[in-house]
């Protein structure tokens, strides 16, 4: 927009705002005011900028004079590698300005201008918070997929087809057993309506997702306590390696009798109905409540009595009954530890450990980036602290202390789910090695193990050497 396109000029509007008696008695004053307004429009573009104010807010249409002001404010820090048209450059990073004060904007600032992947931490997260923490029990609906990818259930609302049952999925885990794959869907407690029934199907509207609810071992009923047992003794079923549940003794009486147990792995003791009806792999037998049945006759071919195996030194005499259902509950854990004095927590000091501060773990000195950070994405009134990395190497190679994976026939491994511990440049995941074996793909976080590669796990020095050898077959045709 040019000056000639601005209509009317301010000088043309004087007659509408100046009283008539002034125009009549002071004509020279009117001529002076008109000349002054024409001067402002011709040399300073006052009318132009007033009429074009909306476009000045858009970098794509903004005048160069304002881009020059922005460049003087922020552009001095821009590396020469980013040298380009100022208008195009600032247009591309406009989202960085709009996110000012957020963790993402700070990380983007270092990534864009210093090529540095920083870690932003908030000291307030380490400050003692009395009565913090909430005991959370996961409710898992275990399913066998009929169509679609089980991971697509994440965040979706699932509905039962034949009975009233509605829930929202907050987490999805994939478990591999010798009898097949089971997806464990963690449900939001406050969003569960109705009752889910094992054997029924669930769907998600407007998708191809469909799965059958798995009949799982929810718990063990203690029929005989026995004696001589200790907390931590492992309980499972004999002759069902790769499919059995895993439980542990969690409480005993004065005689070592088992008074309570906890489930660590819910196992896979039932073949889903949609697989029995179609038998896609032409199997000879299938499972129902850990009893083997023959496809051709639908008659059991093994004992109907479950035999429990307990890894114990002195215990004997305990017996249980299996409780089946659709939804399984985990033992539970605290979601927050800031209220626990035994954790690594500190007291507020109103400087570093306070609500309005953050720490940047970077490879660059604070003198290099602090002025530019404050001009761009740093929120006012907040303290920023620098923690410079002295050594920053992340090894991604497999070492001789991981686990092993290559053997025929395939075996399976069952252990406990344990938390991941974060450190600065990597992460460490401790896990317990048992005497049964998983498929290789049951290990989460391991991208691949090449055929012929052997690893040994020494994270459990108290276990016999034979229990530390984890072997399985890597099939090229099924991953």
Low-pLDDT residue intervals, each spanning 5 or more residues: 398-479
Number of helices: 11
**C-alpha geometry:** elongated
Backbone structural class: alpha+beta
Instruction: Summarize the amount of helix as a percent range.
Output: 10-25%
Instruction: Report strand order across the widest sheet.
Output: 3-6-5-4-8-9
- Please count the beta strands (DSSP E, at least 2 residues each): 23
Mean pLDDT: 77
How much of the sequence lies in strands comes to 15-25%
- Rounded radius of gyration (Å): 35 Å
Largest sheet: 6 strands, antiparallel, barrel
Count the domains: 5
Q: Quote the distance from N terminus to C terminus.
A: 64 Å
Give short descriptive properties of this protein.
23 strands; 19% helix; four-stranded antiparallel beta sheet; 5 domains; alpha+beta; 479 residues; single chain; elongated; 11 helices; six-stranded antiparallel barrel
Can you characterise this structure?
This protein has 479 residues and is an alpha+beta fold. The protein folds into 5 domains: 3-51; 59-92, no CATH class; 95-133 and 337-391, no CATH class; 134-335, no CATH class; 393-479, no CATH class. The chain has helices at 14-17, 20-25, 27-44, 46-51, 53-56, 64-74, 86-92, 94-98, 103-113, 273-278, 366-376; strands spanning 119-121, 135-136, 139-147, 157-160, 165-177, 180-187, 193-194, 201-203, 210-213, 216-224, 234-237, 246-252, 258-265, 285-288, 291-294, 308-311, 319-325, 327-329, 333-334, 357-362, 383-388, 420-422, 427-429. The strands form 7 sheets. The protein has a 6-stranded antiparallel barrel. A 4-stranded antiparallel beta sheet has the order 13-12-11-16, with no helix packed on it. Strand 5 (165-177) and strand 6 (180-187) form a beta hairpin. The model is unreliable at 398-479 (pLDDT under 50).
């Amino acid at each position: 927009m040019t000056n000639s396109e601005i209509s009317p000029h301010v000088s043309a509007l004087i007659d509408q705002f100046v009283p008539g008696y002034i125009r009549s008695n002071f004509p020279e004053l009117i001529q002076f005011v008109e000349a002054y307004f024409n001067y402002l429009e011709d040399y300073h573009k006052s009318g132009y900028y007033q009429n074009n104010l909306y476009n000045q807010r858009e970098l794509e249409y903004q005048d160069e004079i304002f881009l020059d002001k922005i460049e003087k404010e922020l552009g001095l820090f821009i590396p020469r590698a980013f040298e380009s048209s100022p208008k195009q450059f600032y247009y591309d990073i406009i989202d960085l300005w709009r996110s000012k004060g957020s963790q993402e904007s700070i990380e983007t600032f270092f990534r864009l201008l210093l090529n540095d992947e920083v870690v932003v931490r908030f000291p307030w997260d380490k400050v003692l918070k009395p009565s913090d923490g909430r005991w959370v029990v996961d409710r898992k609906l275990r399913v066998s997929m009929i169509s679609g990818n089980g991971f697509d259930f994440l965040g979706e609302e699932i509905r039962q087809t034949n009975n009233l049952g509605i829930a929202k999925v907050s987490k999805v885990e994939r478990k591999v057993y010798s009898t097949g794959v089971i997806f464990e869907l963690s449900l939001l407690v406050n969003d569960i309506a109705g009752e889910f029934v094992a054997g029924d199907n669930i769907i998600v509207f407007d998708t191809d997702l469909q799965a059958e609810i798995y009949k799982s071992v929810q718990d063990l009923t203690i029929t005989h306590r026995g004696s001589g047992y200790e907390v931590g003794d492992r309980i499972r079923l004999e002759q069902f390696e790769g499919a059995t549940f895993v439980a542990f003794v969690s409480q005993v009486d004065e005689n070592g009798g088992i008074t309570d147990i906890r489930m660590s792995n819910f196992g896979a003791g039932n073949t889903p109905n949609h697989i029995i009806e179609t038998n896609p792999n032409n199997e000879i037998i299938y499972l129902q409540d850990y009893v083997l049945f023959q496809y051709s006759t639908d008659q059991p071919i093994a004992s109907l009595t479950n035999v429990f195996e307990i890894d114990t030194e002195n215990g004997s005499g305990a017996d249980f009954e299996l409780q089946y259902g659709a939804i399984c509950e985990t033992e539970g854990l605290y979601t927050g530890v800031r209220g626990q004095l035994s954790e690594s927590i500190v007291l507020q000091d109103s400087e570093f450990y306070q609500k309005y501060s953050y720490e940047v773990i970077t490879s660059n000195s604070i003198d290099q980036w602090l002025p530019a950070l404050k001009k761009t994405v740093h929120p006012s009134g907040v303290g920023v602290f620098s923690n410079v990395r002295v050594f920053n190497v992340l090894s991604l190679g497999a070492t001789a202390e991981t686990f092993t994976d290559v053997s025929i026939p395939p075996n399976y491994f069952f252990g406990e789910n344990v938390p991941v511990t974060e450190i600065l440049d990597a992460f460490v995941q401790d896990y317990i090695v048992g005497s049964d074996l998983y498929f290789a793909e049951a290990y989460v976080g391991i991208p691949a193990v090449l055929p012929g590669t052997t690893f040994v796990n020494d994270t459990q020095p108290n276990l016999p050497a034979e229990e530390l050898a984890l072997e399985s077959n890597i099939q090229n045709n099924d991953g």
